Amino acid sequence: MARAEGILRLLIVDDSLTDADGVINSLRSAGHAVRAAREDRPAELEQLLATQTWDLLLCRDNVANLAPTDVVSLVQRLGKDLPSIILINDKAEESRFYDAGVQDIIEFSDTRRLQFAANRELNSLFARRLGRRNERALRESEKRSRSLLESSRDAVAYMHEGMHIYVNQAYLTLFGYEEPEDIDGLPMLDLIASDDHHKFKAVFREFAEQSESAPVTVVAACVRADGTGFSAKIEFSHARVEGEDCTQVVIRDDATFNVDDSQLKLLRDHDLLTGLYNRKRFMDELEKTAFQAVEGNSDAELLYLVLDEFQSIKEQVGLGTSDVIIKSVADLLRKNLREGEILGRYGDQIFTIIVPSHDDNLVDERAASYQQVITDYVSHVNGKTIDLRCSIGISRITESQPSAEAVLENADKACTQAQRGGGNQVARFQTNEPEVSEEHTIEQWEKRIQRGLHENKFLLHYQPIVTLHGEEQEFYEVLLRLELIEGRLTGPDEFIKPAVELKMMTEIDKWVIRSAVETLTEHRAQFPRTRFFVKLSEQTLHAPEFVDWLKATLNAHKLNGNALIFEISETVAIDNLDQAQQVIAMLKEIGCEFGLEHFGSGVDFSNSLSSLNVDYVKINGTFVENMARDNENQAAVKAIIEMTKQAGKRCIAEFVSDANSLALLWRLGVDHAQGYYIQEPSEKLDYDFEDDDF
Description:
Blueprint: E1 7-13, H1 17-29, E2 33-39, H2 42-51, E3 56-60, H3 68-77, E4 84-88, E5 104-107, H4 111-151, E6 155-160, E7 163-167, H5 169-175, H6 197-208, E8 216-223, E9 229-241, E10 244-253, H7 254-269, H8 279-294, E11 300-307, H9 310-317, H10 319-336, E12 342-345, E13 350-355, H11 360-376, E14 378-381, E15 384-387, E16 390-397, H12 404-420, E17 426-428, H13 438-454, E18 458-467, E19 474-483, E20 489-490, H14 492-501, H15 505-524, E21 530-535, H16 538-541, H17 546-556, E22 564-569, H18 570-575, H19 577-589, E23 593-599, H20 605-611, E24 616-619, H21 621-625, H22 631-646, E25 650-653, H23 659-668, E26 672-673
Parallel strand pairs: 1-2, 1-3, 3-4, 4-5, 16-17, 19-21, 21-22, 22-23, 23-24, 24-25, 25-26
Antiparallel strand pairs: 6-7, 6-10, 8-9, 9-10, 11-13, 11-16, 12-13, 14-15, 18-19, 18-26, 19-20
């Protein structure tokens, strides 16, 4: 694993919680999503190092019983590849640690230096991890390739400068040799009848002179070890073995290749189960399409289709029946093919389709058509009804793409995005927009935000929060979108940062609250139990007139404060503790409740709960999103749920993206859940809380 979902797993050796929080905040401000732990006890530190994976170790030089040299020795003894940095209080102490074996020694107050060193060491660590992963993949690939060669019916050999360096068993059998050593180092020409030497050398010489040429075939008389002869077709192609250029030789007996060629080609190019192009043949077709795009002939697009939650289906119905389902899906996709489109089975539940068009709208229609084919499929197995869904990623095949592999990777990323969005979606890979100056960007965003505020280009979306345990509630979280002049909607990930820089967040918060209150007032006429979760920004915490403005807004709409639950990030609340405590107290006076979101981001969970009088805790979505497949995330979620119950708070799990996670959360006792699996954000308040079966 090069990096875990973009998270920086940070281990801090420090006896000061305040200082550790300061370090975490400085790394967060540098753009890292930090998941941190602090420890100042030797035995517990060794347990953390031995049982968990970390990306960076920061060690203070003044922790009792944990000298930096001892910490580094422990890391080395445990065989961990973990970059370590010592944080010192006095510059004069730096020379003491030159031989400690750490990557850097930095003054605790030098935040910029720490950010720089952390980025440097993380980049180096991830490169090392990637290198090790690639080495493992290469070894596995070589192992599989050798296995395939040994089991191949074709006689295959590799030559270097005309001499044999490797032959498979079929090659030995064809020429009548018993052991590879019998033929190792033997010139290829010794296996060719003397009458055909001239023809053989002419073809081979021409092939060898063109290092990038396509495979070349020659028919010649060959000689076995016992002196008998046979006619064979010999195919040469360029290859590399252990970094050395060499020639791959494939020989087929002339008595059989005319009869079996078409059948062998069919087996080599097609998936045995579905009859579609297999991965190798499809990649050849993708390479051809990419080459045509580079030559300016025509662009195309790639669809990367993955059956959602197929592993779960396979566990339900068994391997044999799952193969039947895969074959049925392949047949349906094949029937949906249009002229010129190329379909292949890339993996177990992965299908790839080349659509020969540069028209995004047409390709989107084709993707929707393939998705509908899957959605309409229903299988009845052993009394069970199997409904299939799929996610599709789309990437363009243009002259700007460096390779077919890059096209495939982009489509895979887009498909992953669709799956994280809840599955059963189509997503298109978007390249980064050209960089513009920061000043120009801020100016653009200021105009966009002003237009959003004054021309109602901001839009509210609502996502339901359902009850898993306890009294049924009708909650929606209020989410903000901005309609850009280009005609597309953008989420807060894009506009919040410039809004913070422009100090416009309080104005945005007020627009959201005012619009939400208007909608809620109208909605509660029919659904009086509905309540909204509304986010507050750090800037609004410091706005002295905010609570008075809120009172006036609620009174104007004759709405009780209990209809609103405000939420703020745990880290923002802790960074502004005094102000957060005051605002929470004033909001509670008018009937509002309060929640902490992204809970679990800080070093000490319990400190947040004991310091802030909140009603709800939203578990950090990065823990929930992959908890069904990540034991560490699962343990973190369980710990947070237990902690909030002991504190008498209600907990909410966000980013619930699949049935397994929802079932696990229910078993762990979480009070409420939210995510794309339940319902994606919508402009409508149309969720049926009475009909859910959670």
